[in-house]
Hints:
The complex is a heterodimer. Chain A is mostly helical.
Amino acid sequence: xxxxxxMIILSHLVKRTTLGKAMRATAQxxxxxRMMGIDVDRVVVLTFFxxxxxxxxxxxxxxxxxxxxxYYIGYTIGLRAFTxxxxxxxxxxxxxxxxxxxxxxxxxxxxxxxxVKWTDVMIFxxxxxxxxxxxxxxxxxxxxxxx
Amino acid sequence: MDRWRALPVSRRRQILTPVLLVIGLLFPFASGNAGNVxxxxxxxxxxxxxxxxxxVVGFAGLLDLGYAAFFAIGAYGYGIAASGQxxxxxxxxxxxxxxxxxVTRLVVPGQADTVQFHFAFWPMLAISAIICAIFGLLFGAxxxxxxxxxxAIVTLGFGEIVPVVARNWDGLTNGAxxxxxxxxxxxxxxxxxxxxxxxxxRPGARGGGGVDLHPACRSRASGARGWPSGxxxxxxxxxxxxxxxxxxxxxxxxxxxxxxxxxxYVAKLTTATPDMFTFPVSVMILxxxxxxxxxxxxxxxxxxxxxxxxxxxxxxDLTEYVHALxxxxxxxFLQRVELITSLELIFGLILVLMMIFRxxxxxPAVRRVSALTRExxxxxxxxxxxxxxxxxxxxxxxxxxxxxxxxxxxxxxxGGVAAADDITLTVRAxxxxxxxxxxxxxxxxxxxxxxxxxxxxxGSIRLEGHEIGGRxxxxxxxxxxxxxxxxxxxxxx
Lengths: 147, 493
């Protein structure tokens, strides 16, 4: 529920606000964005701020659900989050959500089918297969080619 | 020193390589300290791996976050072939190998006979490299369309898959406990007292001289010239380079070097466990490459040695200094500090500082950019050398008026925009033709059509009578005709 609200807020922020516009412009072409009067450094800093804040929100849920924490828990989760983002298509919010759900499903279904120890192999094999047929992710648009 | 500098680089290399080889060969005997020999062997394993990854990341510009996978494949390849892990049933097919001394028939009374593997190190070194190269190709082929983040995550995925498979495929790899009792090349001959010094000289020299030289030669050979262009701008590098070919070659070569590293490392260590090849290992190798300077062989060697030295010598000494300082000022905290356990923290710091202050690496590859001389301007690139083209100089142009480039009715539209509409143009030998026009009038489109970056919708482009319209640019350039050369100036003015 909170995740849904956050997603709507983020979606609004990226699509409707000036900051969101500046972010997307910076992603497309930092130099051109600079020429259009965007403070690229500021946008980058704010983007990191936003991303980290979302990670913080996510970790709160993790802590509430599992009821424990340790310094190393971020590694696997971060890896899978990166995988989800790429799977869904970088730069696409619905894509990231879809990718996240997809990975979650593979994780729980695959665990039952083949055993927990093969989960990572399955996640990454499916990722590679999807990347072969859709090189920019499930919902990704053909990204502008960066040098 | 001056006389040394006067020698051409190739000559210096001819002298230095045997010297390095001999030093590498003699080091284990000269240094009586087994710990030093071990540290040196580890250091040169790092060098080997970093050089291998440098081919992929530095030369070809393909970000590979799963390089440890090839390290693992090479390691397990040799580990399985040189330990008692696999015990297939005996059949007469094994007889030639037994005759060659690579396997032994194990006879256990009351059971079927089995085969004990003990393949020799040197052939396995080559076989591991080939196996890894094949894996590199298998893995490189589907990822060729990917770029940037997407390529990174897929390589990372591959790097995650391999250790998990190694951990869970108990029959082949003995699971999480890993392979034990892997034979080292000399252990059968020498007693258990000191197998390392006997084993190490030759592989040590490999790291020191052989491999150091090997990619160096590659970067001079015509084959490797395709890579830097792949790095600078992946989608467009029309200067006669077939990208698919060179990317795959880079993957295969990088993987093969990783396999060499794995084989050597496991032969030294005599065990292989899945934990030795996880993601942090890939990152560490990548750190060495970035630290040394992408695409710079000497830089990468330096960085790998530095990292190894940091790990085995500097941090231990520093820890003692800090402890001494702690005793001096009476701080309990300083006396407890263990710098080696915070190795990754220190790496992280070094890397962040490097990226802020010296982004190009410790010892970057020199990319000579100098103005062209008059002779060079009138020369054309060809395989192997720069050839002087007399026809290109107006005063000596043979057959004035002979058409070189003929364009007829060339048309290209992007969606509804007709960027080039019915262009007809002939360029004759010795002629200088300028294309001028306001912004958006299609000058760049014309150049892109001629150089083959984009395919025309209609019309023909003939270069010396050969139709080149719509052919990939690397084919146009390598076909041997006097090709068009594209400069940034020509595309923007």
